[in-house]
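Thread: dinuclear copper ion complex, take 2
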Amino acid sequence: MAAHAANYLTKTANNRLGLWLFILSDSFVFGGLLVTRFVLLGDQRPELSQGLGLAVTLILLLSSFFMNRGEVEMAHGNQKGFVRNTTITLALGIAFLIGVVGVEWPLAAAHGLTTDSSAAGAVFYIMTGFHAFHVLTGVFLMYVVLRLGRKGHFTAEKHWPVEAAAVYWHFIDVAWIFFYPALYLMGLVAG
Amino acid sequence: MFLRSALFKGLLGQAVGTVIGVAFVWMLRILFGAAPAFPFDAHREPALVGGAVIGAISFMVFAGVFDDWFKWTRGESTPDHHEPDKDKPGWWRYFNVDYDHKIIGVQYGVTSLIVLGAGGILALLFRIELAQQGITFLNNEVFDLLFIGTEWYQHTSAADLYNTFMSLHGMVMIASILLGVGAMSNYLVPLMIGANDMAFPRLNAFAYWVNVPGALLLLSSLFLGGFDTGWTGYPPLSVRAPIGVQMFLLGVYLVGLSSIFGAINVIVTTLRLRAPGMTMFKMPIFVWAAFATAIIQLTATQLIGLSFQLVMFQRLLGMGFFDGTVGGNPILFQHLFWFYSHPAVYVFILPGLGVISELLPVFTRKPLFGYKWIALSSLGIALVGFFVWAHHMFTSGMTSYLRLPFMYSTLLVAVPTGVKFFSWAGTLWRGKIHLDTPMLFVLGSIVIFLLGGVSGPPNGTVATDLHLHDTYWVVGHFHDTMFGGYIFPLFAAIYYWFPKMSGKRLNEFWGKVHFWVMFPAFLVMTLGQMYVGLHGMRRRIADYDLGPVVENVQFWITIAAFVIFSSILIFLVNAYFTAKRGEVVEGNVWNSRSPEWQIPNPAPLHNYSKQFAVIGEPYDYGHGDEYVNMNPAPSPAGD
Amino acid sequence: MNKKLLSIGEYVLVAALVVASTYFLGAKVLTNEFLLPMQASEQAVVIDELFGIHWWLIAFFFSLIVVFMLYSVFRSFIVHGLRPKREGFGEYMEGNARLEVVWTVVPLALVVWIAFLGADSLGKVERRYAGPVEINVIGTQWSWRFEYPTEEGVSVVSDKLYLPVDKPVVLHLQSTDVIHSFWVPEFRVKQDVLPGGEAFTRDLRITATEIGAYKVRCAELCGESHWSMQADVQVVSEAEYEAWLVQAGEDCGDEAVACGQRWATQFGCVSCHQAADGPIVPTTGPTWLELFGSVVSLDDGSTVTADETYILNSILDPNSQIHAGFRPDVMPKNFGELLTEEQINQIIEFIKSLGQ
Ligand code: HEA
Ligand code: HEA
Ligand code: CUA
Ligand SMILES: [Cu+2]
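Output below.
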């Protein structure tokens, strides 16, 4: 039995290293997109809805908070608390997606910022699109963890998938913290 | 039987998935009014790309690569290993999703050789065209029939076909190298550090299998108009190229995924699964090379993926990343591309240099000269390699003062590479040298890689590169580095570890013939390339008008290519007959100290029945002490 | 004692071999005369000097490693025989920290020195002279066009590059479609030609030093006919250059056909379309021989008679009607902007003269 637990610990340590390596790898794409943005647009930025940008950013930050709560609850063996907090995170994640893809995209397009209008349009859609794709995978992961958690799959000692989903979610959040100012705040609106 | 293998199911899945994907995207576009229903031709690109993506995913699902992960999402647990099915024939495991690193290693290796063959045959085809001046071969009716005549094919001329063959040759060969690197690190790293498998066997299987649809997509471009962009795919040319370029971009993307996930595995395995007592500086030197390689693959690969994605989107959605007239910048692509593709060239060679360092002590019967320096030089090359990418862009018109820092960093790579050469010379010095086939290939590698290496600095100093850039000099440079740093070491590795994989030893005589045919032919080929390059032969041209001397040299290059081809045929025949009825060898064939040779041939299913302990240095030939103790006293409970 | 002497002798022998081999390679094989095309520009002189240093370094390092390697193999034959026994070992040596430092530091120093030389020659190659001759170079799939701005601002356009000898020239390079690269091997220097407008214009400075005929060769893969994207370069005396400018700047007169032929040549039409008599050869675009008045089948299956409207339309908007068997998006779409209406009409006259 002791060997079994030790085995779980080593495995989790391996997994953790693997996950962090993946995140390191992935951040190179986010970095590459930032470089693209600064090379092409320099001190200009696309014209976007400031209110909406701030709102989705707050939503995402908030979701990270609940994700953390969820993980801590699980670490204390509180399944109910885990489910509650994770559900909120999931909802916030979906709200973020709706905000960006469902509202901001059509809004921008209506203002003439389309994929083929200019480099600014191209940069805007690729950055938000790429990030949204990550949010989508994060939401999917969270959904899986939530379902397993509901079924009582995790314990205070063994809940690596929860940790993984949480770390990944925070990573997406941090990436947005770089993207948000680069798209919404820095530089002057062209024109 | 074959019809039930994962490979076949995957291929079927890919075919079905592609059709469904095309239909699906096509329907969506009709629904949204983005495309007319007829003719299909006019707006087929998005549909084909959608089909290709869904086809590739279907391959993976049908082949069963995701089975265990699907189970995990449902909360079912799965065993760490699937024990092989006793009723199935021996080849069965190789055609199915298997989690054993040795099987995966061999799968990688064989795929790599097949892909090498495809790339080589493409090279022969365009080499025939170059053998003499004038368009003389690719305007043959056979090609018309095969490619130009087909409705999907938009090539208008033999010159276009040349460009496609040449581009595909480059990329296919690079894919072959990446597969071969996967083969070596998968097969060897766990065995060398005393692990029973890689850290994440399922991820490992994923990383292998994703190459299969990737390679297929890459080759499918031949029948979709090809791509006349070179392996570098610079926009705006790649934005205007035929649809084939999309298959090229997607194929490379998948192969890149494989690199990234494979790298995660190698790093975690190396850092966490070493046998007790094996500190980093007591690892076999190959593991260091694989580790440094993995660091590059893990990070840099993402940027070729990104750059290719951007081109894809520019084509599909008109996004103007690289279009100067709407605020884009074509040079940005080159930066993103080379940020990967320069470090990638060190991915190609580091494992090969690792093999050289690994085998030299065995065949000279003395310690590896300056182990630590060699180990660290791999890391050094990998790290400096991240800061030199713009040396491919000295003439590109990028910000011109940036060329100087990149010149310095480029030349700096000569230092750690030099350390390797000098240490190898030190290892050979006063050795007791056994010229078995693997050793011949090692010595050949050193000479050829040296030629490739010393032809690097003239590229690196900006002023001389103004002449050399995009000429055959560069072609000669990189064939030397890639053959010396990869192809020759790969063959050394195959001859050396073949007994470990199969229990049989490749025929020595034919092995030596292989070497003595390939080595001189190869020198003729690359020295010839460098010569014509200096005299004005540009890269990527179907025809040239540089006079009789250059034409003569070109002719001999083509002959040399065919000789290389024959030598590889000799190898294949040798391997075939050895596998059928070769000399069975047991135990430590080469008298090596390395742990993988202390267990039976072929390596048993779970590698080491008992964890060994490291008690000495890896390459202390002639000193008496053992490197590993295969039967250590059981360690105190707990562990 | 004896052993030590032997060992010293061994080192001396190897060193002598390295020197001999370096000398042989450096002085007899790797020479600029053998390896490089003729020198025809000031820049080439600087660059070749740097090449010379590289050849010597290559000769030395190649000799160094290969001689050590071959000598070691040879020595092992002598000492241990051709097929040594599996048992037994070579001489035990683990490494030598001092040596390792030496062969890290010495190459490091060399590298810094070469980089310095590299920076220095780059500076010389790109040196700016006052009052250079300015020429615009326009690369188009797959031809070159050269514009010579004159004082009145009217430019002479040519498909050949004329350069006055010994005069500094600056070329302003621009592309209309994809990336090309300007390279004359005898001048050594090379510069990519970028599309995207003014912001992407790049300069290349050349001072030609030898009167003669050369070729610009496009050195960046630019699609189907990249291989044939070449143009003649004539380096002439200054007097001849001036004379040529005057002559080339002359009006082509009223001869519509002759003018059309001139434009078709200067603007690169004839790099894709056959306009010279003779048997019809496969080209990138449809041949112009007997085009006018013929019935052209288009790739959507319909046919059309090649009258003046069709030809005009094909020039202004090439994609609107695609000649069957040819590709859309190949022929540049901006000739409507580059050419005046008169010039286009004259080209049409020229095409007409080739018909029937
Ligand atoms: C497989 C791998 C590989 C390796 C290992 C290298 C190694 C090097 N390469 Fe190469 N290179 C390629 C593959 C490789 N290259 C490819 C594929 C391309 C073309 C891509 C394309 O456009 O398609 C290319 C192109 C390329 C260019 C661009 C040329 C151009 O297009 O204009 C440059 C420019 O600097 C360059 C430089 C170098 C240098 C300085 C090294 C150095 O790392 C070499 C270092 C080694 C030595 C120098 C020899 C040993 C050292 C000593 C004995 C010590 C003492 C030596 C000195 C002090 C000089 N390479
Ligand atoms: C590993 C990498 C690799 C390898 C091994 C080779 C091998 C060869 N290469 Fe290639 N080459 C590249 C990588 C490689 N190349 C790259 C990256 C480019 C740049 C492309 C670009 O510009 O975009 C290039 C470009 C390139 C050019 C320049 C083309 C141009 O610019 O127009 C030339 C020209 O001579 C050439 C020739 C050859 C030849 C004759 C071989 C021969 O050595 C090939 C010999 C090998 C074989 C013939 C295979 C034999 C195999 C079998 C017999 C097995 C068959 C059976 C099975 C199916 C298992 N290559
Ligand atoms: Cu223009 Cu190549
Ligand atoms: Cu490079």
